[in-house]
Amino acid sequence: MIDQFWLILLGFAAGILGSMIGLGGGIIVVPVLTFLGFPPTVAASNSLFAALSNAIASTISYSKQKRIEFSLGLKLGLLTVPGTVLGAVISSDVSSEIFKILFGIILVFSAAYIFLRKKLETKEKTLSKQMMVFAIGASFFAGIVSSFFGIGGGIIFVPLMVVGMGMAMKRAAPTSQLILLFASLSGVIVHSILGHPDFLQAGLLAIGSFFGGLVGARLSLEIKERYLQILISVVILIAAGKLFIDSLSGNSGFFSF
To answer: Is 0.70 topped by the overall pTM?
Structure first.
C-alpha cells in the first residue's frame, strides 16, 4: 500500500487543476495511469473516483462562493446519467490502442479549449428551444464520454454553457463541477458493478483529489490564468502526442499492472 501513496499526490495535483478549469482532473489522471500501463477500464474507473471526490469538494467551495447555477446544473447533471451507464458498459470492450487514440483526440480538444477559453466568452443569451434540445443531446453524449474515459465530461459542458448559453466563465466552471458530480457518481456506480476499478488505488486518488478540489476552488479567485493556461495546454498536448505514439507502436506503457 505504501508504494501507492503517490496516487494521493497525483489526485491532489489533478484536483487543483480540474477544479480551476472546470474540466475535472481526469485529463491529468487518465494519461498518467495509461502511461504507467494501467488497462483502459481500470484507468477510467479509478479516475472517476477522483473526479467524484473533486466534484464534491469543488461544489462545496463554489457553493459558498455563490458561483453555481443550481437549477441548470441539476438538470444537465441528471441528463448525463443514461450516457454514463452506456459509457461504462462499452468501455469493457475497447482495446488499449483504440482507447489511447480516442483519448488523445479528447486531450487535443481539451488543450484547445483551455488555451482559448477566454476568447469563447460571449454576451448572455436567452435560451432557445433549439439550444435546450441540443443541451439534452450534449448531456447524454457527455455522460458517455465521462464514463468511457473517466474524465467527467467538463470538456463538453463548459464550452456549451459559455458559447451556447452565454454564461460567464466564472460561473460556468463552478456549475460544471456540480454537473460532474452527477456524471461521475453514476459512472462510479456502474463501473463498480462491472468490477472495473481497483478500490485501493481509486480511494487514494479520491483522497488527493478532494483536497485538491478545495485548494483549486480557492486559487481560482486569485491566480492569473494566462500562464497556467499555456502550461496546462502544453502538458496536455505532449500527453496526447505520447498516447498517439504509443497506440501506433503498440507500447502498453512504462510498466505493466
So the answer is: yes
The answer to whether 39 and 138 have CB atoms below 8 angstroms apart is: no
Helix, coil or strand: residue 107: helix
Write the pLDDT tens digit of every residue in 6-56: 999 999 998 888 777 767 678 889 889 988 889 889 999 999 999 899 889
Provide the residue ranges of all domains of the chain, joining segments of one domain with +.
8-249
In 30-162 the beta strands, taken as DSSP E runs, fall at none
Q: Is the dihedral of CA 129, 132, 136, 137 positive or negative?
A: positive
Helix, coil or strand: residue 250: coil
Q: What is the pLDDT of residues 64-117, one digit of tens each?
A: 988 899 998 999 999 999 999 999 999 888 888 888 888 888 888 877 877 776
Residue with cell 503498440: 250
Provide the residue count of the chain. 257
What pLDDT sits at residue 254? 43
Strands (DSSP E) contained in 5-88 are none
237 versus 257: which is more confidently predicted?
237
Angle at 202 between CA 57 and CA 8, to 5 degrees: 65
List phi, psi (to 5°) of 226. Answer: -60, -50
